[in-house]
Amino acid sequence: xxxxxxxxxxxxxxxxxxxxxxxxxxxxxxxxxxxxxxxxxxxxxxxxxxxxxxxxxxxxxxxxxxxxxxxxxxxxxxxxxxxxxxxxxxxxxxxxxxxxxxxxxxxxxxxxxxxxxxxxxxxxxxxxxxxxxxxxxxxxxxxxxxxxxxxxxxxxxxxxxxxxxxxxxxxxxxxxxxxxxxxxxxxxxxxxxxxxxxxxxxxxxxxxxxxxxxxxxxxxxxxxxxxxxxxxxxxxxxxxxxxxxxxxxxxxxxxxxxxxxxxxxxxxxxxxxxxxxxxxxxxxxxxxxxxxxxxxxxxxxxxxxxxxxxxxxxx
Amino acid sequence: xxxxxxxxxxxxxxxxxxxxxxxxxxxxxxxxxxxxxxxxxxxxxxxxxxxxxxxxxxxxxxxxxxxxxxxxxxxxxxxxxxxxxxxxxxxxxxxxxxxxxxxxxxxxxxxxxxxxxxxxxxxxxxxxxxxxxxxxxxxxxxxxxxxxxxxxxxxxxxxxxxxxxx
Lengths: 315, 166
Prior knowledge:
heterodimer; A: mainly alpha; two-stranded antiparallel sheet; 14 helices; globular; B: mainly alpha; 7 helices
């Protein structure tokens, strides 16, 4: 891609802006929202990696949830630091992605059918988590034991450091996306999206490429999940494993523009503050009104700019 | 709840409450009416024609946008009816919809998209699996089993049990 270098530059500029935000003093609440935005932006960017090859997943909540649950469980039961636990979570997420992805891609489960297969996977993971009450706490969820300022356990008294954590993760995700988009895999993915049979006939290993991308996406999602668990301090099936999370990810991506580099992230930057503002204005219980606004927004976007606000031509 | 008291029925040692029987009969009637609508009325035939071949349907002069509208309306109508029926046997909460929608999607895909018979058979199979496992293990395992069946069907017969291969 010709624009490769400029994209790299804008990535650096973006990093600089977010770094500047660390220095600027701001209220805790704004910081909280910024952290949340970074977490969601990273999630949505992960999701958009395989979406480039029209591998639409409705089950990214399960990777996110696994990344949140496994390190937390390891921490609570064995006092293992999430710094190590996050990699265990990522490995488990990758294994799950391969378990579902391999048969699906091997037997040609595509498009809406793949979406449903992943949806079922996510709901299955959620139900298993709800069922194994004595391990995972079921619907009650888990609280991360507060240890004060313990950087080795990814716990900080200064909320700014959570922001730094989420922001570093977002940069990592964006960097991976940049490398994939402008590397060989990116071209393979575009070719697969255009015509799978033609791509295969020209020597693209469709199965491998799809699986690799899905695995990378799952691993990054799991890492995001760990950061979320540490940041929120409490996880439960509805907050990290439910279909709501998967749907939110897709909504953000579609509004921002699935096929563009900045689109998915932009979606998160636009939509997360909306939901937070609504929650402020209407209270916790009416906070779900955000979904109504999301619905209206997505209809408007689909009518006015079907490829998303920051759309780039699908090539 | 009902103005008329209906007796409970016992079959083979199992007792079915009157609301269950009512729901069962009502859903059978709805199912029959839907079959009649799809096979005996003009709009039903148009609907099936559009489902089978969009371009062919347009060639013979079917206004597919209108048909889409009717299909959506019919879907909403049936959704409302089934929600009403479900409210007899399940506790209702504002957030219950998503669970049922997931199950509905699973049933439709297992049965085969566009196949009416398939949907009926799939709902029977999945319902039985769900209830039996729910009885011998826990309800969650029942739902997990239903999901597992769907995954198997997707892998072995991507078009669904009764679907026509695209």
